[in-house]
Amino acid sequence: MAEQNDNLNVELDPEQMVQQGVHFGHSPSKLHPEMERYLYGIRNTINIIDLEQTAEKLKQALSFIKQLKEEDRTLLVVGTKIQVQDLTEEFAKQGGFPYVNERWIGGTFTNFDNISERIEYLKELEQKREEGEFEKYTKKEKADKEEEIEKLQRKFGGLKSLNGLPDAVLVLHMRKDDLAVREAQKKGVKIIGIADTNVDPTQADYPIPANDDAITSVQYILDKIEEVV
């Protein structure tokens, strides 16, 4: 039976989760001991995640995200695995969230002042281009400036709305973006993370036990976040 949280007004249906592959984990040989509590069993040599627990943990994460939005606090979305890069950007832009979908730059949290300077430099270059200042350059100089903007955009474009450290970070693949997780821990930034069976869920303040490799599984979770925000 589908679960409904009155405060959230969102339906979490285990049958729908099964259809989206949310329950599929990795092989038992890759199991992180801390994920054992979230398992339903093993099927065809694959760990199966207990979707009742997924629903419970997802509700907790959704409540926290809703609270962040209501209090106008900042959630940074991180998804740099190739399969979810476009998904990350689309979701973040639609919800008005800052995001990282290319590569996590070391020091994004732990050396934010330096990162902030690069973001401001990108904004300055874009403003100069808009105001026509590039027209005074030679064709080659203009091309060089455009290339510089493109490179900075790839690295920092999703962070342009970030004026300081975010209040929380949503990590779509905790193994791939473990550096983001570690930096968030160091700086006291709350972590919401999709926890597949091969990662340590205790690294996240709000772990969501779920398949982090299937796009359909990640999409299901993002859709539920969209519903509450």
TrEMBL record:
Identify the keywords attached in UniProt to this record, alphabetized. Coiled coil, Ribonucleoprotein, Ribosomal protein
One Pfam family per UniProt:
Ribosomal_S2
Q: Which GO terms describe its biological process?
A: translation
Instruction: Identify the GO cellular component terms for this protein.
Output: small ribosomal subunit
Any coiled-coil ranges, and where?
135-162
Concerning CDD domains, the annotation shows: RPS2
Q: Does the keyword NAD apply?
A: no
HAMAP family xref list: Ribosomal_uS2_B
UniProt family annotation: Belongs to the universal ribosomal protein uS2 family.
Q: What is this protein called?
A: 30S ribosomal protein S2
Q: Which organism is it from?
A: candidate division MSBL1 archaeon SCGC-AAA382N08
